Amino acid sequence: MKITIVMLLLTALTACSVQLAVPAQSDVDRISTKYPGYTLAELNGGKTLFQHTCNRCHKLKNPMSRNEKKWDKIVPKMIGKLNKKEGKVVIDEKQQDSILRYIITMNSAK
């Protein structure tokens, strides 16, 4: 009985999590006019920061769930809340920009 409950909980948690697309060179190429010189390594770094930062306060959001204009407002606000909550700079402006570039790049895959 306990195993069944654990399996059901794990299934529910997996179903609720956002499956992020694996960044590819085609994503970098698509956004290269907006971010000249942007690399796949930088895109993957932004994804890692997004995954390890944003889920500290809430579940991860799909980058395609909002448009670029909304993300431009949301990300700085959320980073500000996190830094204030922690009482120190957890994510600096460069890291914030990396997260935002990742989200906007993956959002443009629509």
Walkthrough of the structure:
There is one protein chain. With 110 residues, the chain is mostly helical. The protein has one domain (21-107). It is built from 5 helices and no strands. The longest helix is centred in the C-terminal third of the chain and has 19 residues, at 68-86. The chain is globular and about 40 Å long.
Brief descriptors of the model:
single chain; about 110 residues; mainly alpha; 5 helices
- Strand portion: under 5%
Major sheet attributes: none
H/E series: HHHHH
Number of helices: 5
Kindly report how far apart the N and C termini lie. Answer: 43 Å
Instruction: Report the mean per-residue pLDDT as an integer.
Output: 88
Which regions contain 5 or more consecutive residues with pLDDT less than 50? Answer: 10-15
* Morphology: globular
Helix content: 55-70%
Question: What is the radius of gyration?
Answer: 16 Å
How many domains? The number is: 1
Return the structural class.
mainly alpha
Strand segment tally: 0
Compile the SSE list and pairings:
Layout: H1 2-16, H2 25-31, H3 40-54, H4 68-86, H5 93-107
Give a quick precis of the structure.
This protein is an all-alpha fold. The protein has helices at residues 2-16, 25-31, 40-54, 68-86, 93-107.
